[in-house]
Design brief:
This protein has 143 residues and is mainly alpha-helical. It has 2 domains: 2-95, no CATH class; 104-143, no CATH class. It has 7 helices and no strands. The chain has helices at residues 2-29, 34-56, 59-62, 67-93, 96-103, 106-117, 126-142. Helix 2 runs antiparallel to helix 4 and helix 4 (67-93) runs antiparallel to helix 5 (96-103). The longest helix has 28 residues, at 2-29. It starts with a helix and ends with a helix. 6% of the residues are buried.
C-alpha cells in the first residue's frame, strides 16, 4: 500500500506543479512583479504547511529533530528558494509552455545527485536511468 500511496502522492504533486505555473503567469500578466508573486506564493505555502504540520501532529516530532536533519532541511529549503525565484523569473519573461518543460530537466540532476550522495540508501536501476534519459529527450523535443 505504501508504494501505491507514494505514487498517488507523486501524481498529486505533479498535478499541483502542473497547474501552479498557469496561476503564476496569470498573476504576472495582470502586472504582478515576480518577486511579489514569489512572496505571496511562499507565504501561502507556509500557511498550508503549518495547517498540515499541526493537523497531522507532526509538530511534536519537529521539536525533536536531530541537528543533521534540520541542517539538511535548511539546505533543501535554500535550494528550493533559488528554484522558485528563478522559476518565477523565467515564467515572467518566458512562455510557460516552454519554461515548465525546461525546468523538468531537474530529473537529470536528481539522478546524478542520488548516485553521488545517496548511493548507500537508494539504488538506481536500469529503468530509472532509461526513463530519465527519455524524459530529457522528450524535453529536448518539446523545446
Amino acid at each position: 500500500m505504501s508504494r501505491f500511496r507514494g505514487q498517488l502522492e507523486a501524481i498529486l504533486a505533479s498535478l499541483s506543479f502542473g497547474t501552479a505555473p498557469i496561476f503564476a503567469k496569470k498573476g504576472f500578466l495582470s502586472g504582478l512583479h515576480p518577486l511579489s508573486g514569489i512572496a505571496i506564493a511562499v507565504f501561502a505555502g507556509l500557511l498550508v504547511n503549518i495547517v498540515f504540520v499541526f493537523s497531522t501532529g507532526e509538530w511534536k516530532k519537529l521539536v525533536l529533530s536531530k541537528r543533521q536533519g534540520f541542517l539538511f532541511s535548511l539546505i533543501a529549503g535554500g535550494c528550493n528558494t533559488v528554484a522558485v525565484v528563478t522559476y518565477f523569473w523565467a515564467m515572467a519573461i518566458g512562455k510557460v509552455a516552454l519554461v515548465v518543460p525546461i525546468t523538468c530537466i531537474y530529473t537529470l540532476f536528481t539522478v546524478v545527485a542520488v548516485f553521488a550522495f545517496l548511493r548507500k540508501s537508494e539504488t538506481l536501476d536500469t529503468w530509472t536511468v532509461i526513463g530519465t534519459i527519455l524524459i530529457i529527450v522528450g524535453i529536448m523535443l518539446t523545446v
